[in-house]
Amino acid sequence: MLTNQSHLFNLPEGLTYLNCSYMSPMLKSVAAIGREMISKKDNPVQILPHHFFDNPRRLREEFAKLLEIENPDHCAVVPSVSYALSNVAKNLDVEKGDNIVLAEEQFPSNVYTWKPLESEKGVTLRIVSAPEVKDDRGTLWNEHILEAIDSKTKLVALGHVHWADGTIFDLKRIRERTKEVGALLVIDGTQSFGALPFSVSEIQPDMVVAAGYKWLLGPYSSGVAYYGEYFHDKSPTENNWMHRLGSEDFAGLVNYVDEYQPGSIRYEVGESANFILTPMLTEAIRQINEWGAQGIQEYCENLTSELVNELTEMGYQIEDSNSRSHHMFGIRLPQGININSLKKRFLDMNIFVSLRGSSVRVAPHLYNNDSDMDRLLDGFKLMSHA
């Protein structure tokens, strides 16, 4: 079982940081890689031609290991979720009357990408609302999503968990349903990959993506995606020289070719070797693979279980533990608690969480301990007694 790992992070002392869902603190090893790679640009002779290809290859390999992807060449280095999803939108075969199924209030990048298809192709975005119930909310929400998928559905685009409250989507059943109707399944794992186990081999989605600066513990403007077989003969939104077959031969780059690199490498961003960010994200995922996502999830569950029980008894509403993640979850406030006053109280106590709508999003990691949970609970108690 994993123990507290705060000694491996650069998080300053004296604060309770429960906001990895906003942005992770930096691992010391990742920061060291960044400093090392910055210094190499001082002397460019240290950057050799093979580094252009070694850097993204190593990142693809670590990401493939994390998500149980059989072939790392089916992964691609990307700068953001929206960039990766744009490749899906470009190659989605849709016509007027088709629909795309989304969850209510999912992260904007996984909505804005599909909206142009409404006006350009006559596609309907079928947004499935969360049920307004206290019990079995997650279970019912998943049932409603399954019911929304029909013969005209061409794509289901979801998070692995809902980004605001950690509700887990039943991707195995949703994948079975999309196969029945011939729809693609696209998953944004930004709020889960690295902290909640996920297997591409098991779920068999058509595409997944995650930004690197949250639960993958990497730098901003970096990420990784997986594109399945459907995309292996399609066209990327961007064309750059590293996409093309034989581009390792610098002397032959002017011998232009039509063939792409194998698998999904064609969907990588230009300059994917990024000699600073790519090695940093590679080191971050390497460390996560050493810990194991399951171990991180179990640590967070053990850390937060008493907090959840006490808050529930105090009248705060939290999704049932079987329907949500433990590394990130929403706490809905009872009547009489002003969320802006709560925010000020937390800031005064040096507690950092996210506020989403009328709920508090708590997102711990291995650098948090029981003392952090006690301070957070004290903050809620002070508001309840105010």
Task: Describe what you observe in this structure.
The protein is an alpha/beta fold and 386 residues long. It has two domains: 6-18 and 293-384, Aspartate Aminotransferase, domain 1, CATH 3.90.1150; 30-290, 3-Layer(aba) Sandwich (Aspartate Aminotransferase, domain 2), CATH 3.40.640. 36% of the residues lie in helices and 14% in strands. The chain has twelve helices and 13 strands. The chain has helices spanning 28-40, 51-67, 81-91, 109-112, 116-121, 137-148, 171-181, 200-203, 277-291, 293-313, 339-348, 370-384, and strands at 16-17, 75-78, 99-103, 124-128, 153-159, 184-188, 207-211, 223-227, 317-318, 329-332, 351-352, 354-356, 359-362. The chain has a seven-stranded mixed beta sheet with strand order 2-8-7-6-5-3-4, sandwiched between helices. A four-stranded antiparallel beta sheet has the order 9-10-13-12, with helices on one face. It has a two-stranded parallel ribbon with strand order 1-11. Helix 7 (171-181) links the parallel strand 5 (153-159) and strand 6. The radius of gyration is 22 Å and the shape is globular. The two termini are 39 Å apart.
Strand arrangement, largest sheet? 2-8-7-6-5-3-4
- The CATH class of the largest domain is Alpha Beta
Number of strands: 13
CATH architecture of the largest domain: 3-Layer(aba) Sandwich
Quickly give the structural class.
Answer: alpha/beta
Distance between the termini: 39 Å
CATH topology of the largest domain: Aspartate Aminotransferase, domain 2
Total separate domains: 2
